[in-house]
Amino acid sequence: MNTDPGVPIIPGDPATPVYRRKRSITDPSDSEVQSSWHVHPLSASVAGVGIVALLVGLLLFTASRNQTPVAIASPSPSPSPVIQYVEVPVTVDTTEATTTSTMITDGAWTIGVDFPAGKYRTTSPVDPNCYWEIDKSGTNGGTIINNDIPGGGRPTVTLKAGQDFRTRDCGTWTKSS
């Protein structure tokens, strides 16, 4: 710490004291040295700013604590929609289909729903990759009743209600009786 009174005070220097002891001789004929404390002018201004900031902060804090709470009106909630469930009777007809279409093309079909039961034959000779399959309806191909890869010719199948018929690359099938 700088204690030599002859060394200049540098603002912001940590070695510069806020208070300095200054020696002064009040009577030149008297050899007694008197000591007194003096505040450096820069230190006084910094301290003054600090005190002002403290007072302003205290004033703002006090003012904020003495405020009366204000009620903020929120918009009234809109009414919730009313949901009503209504039972609707549904009738499912499980009788044999009354479809008049008698031509089956590639795909999976349910006999008695998509096409009427009966005997079906291809309209022309089939592709060598032709494949057909008759399954128990509702098993998704899990219960095969009959199937074939004819490899040519005009195959014939007999389809009953409650069966699924799958056909691929066989052309068109028509009801023969």
Structural features, described:
The protein has 177 residues and is of the alpha+beta class. The protein has 2 domains: 1-63, no CATH class; 103-175. The chain is built from 1 helix and 10 strands. It has one helix spanning 41-65, and strands spanning 19-24, 34-39, 103-104, 107-110, 118-122, 131-136, 144-148, 156-159, 163-168, 173-175. The strands form 3 sheets. A 4-stranded antiparallel β-sheet has the order 3-10-5-8, with no helix packed on it. The longest helix is centred in the first third of the chain and has 25 residues, at 41-65. The N and C termini lie far apart (121 Å). The model is unreliable at 19-24 (pLDDT under 50).
The amount of helix comes to: 10-25%
What's the story with the biggest beta sheet? 4 strands, antiparallel
Strand content: 25-35%
Mean of all residue-level pLDDT scores: 73
Task: List low-pLDDT spans.
Answer: 19-24
Rg for CA atoms: 54 Å
- Strand tally: 10
Global outline: elongated
So how many helices? Answer: 1
CA(first)-CA(last) distance: 121 Å
Order of helices and strands: EEHEEEEEEEE
Give me the side-by-side strand order of the main sheet: 3-10-5-8
Index terms:
four-stranded antiparallel β-sheet; alpha+beta; 27% strand; 177 residues; 10 strands; 1 helix
How is this structure best summarized?
The protein has 1 helix and 10 strands. It has one helix at 41-65; strands at residues 19-24, 34-39, 103-104, 107-110, 118-122, 131-136, 144-148, 156-159, 163-168, 173-175. Strands 3-10-5-8 form a 4-stranded antiparallel β-sheet, with no helix packed on it. A 4-stranded antiparallel β-sheet has the order 4-9-6-7, with no helix packed on it.
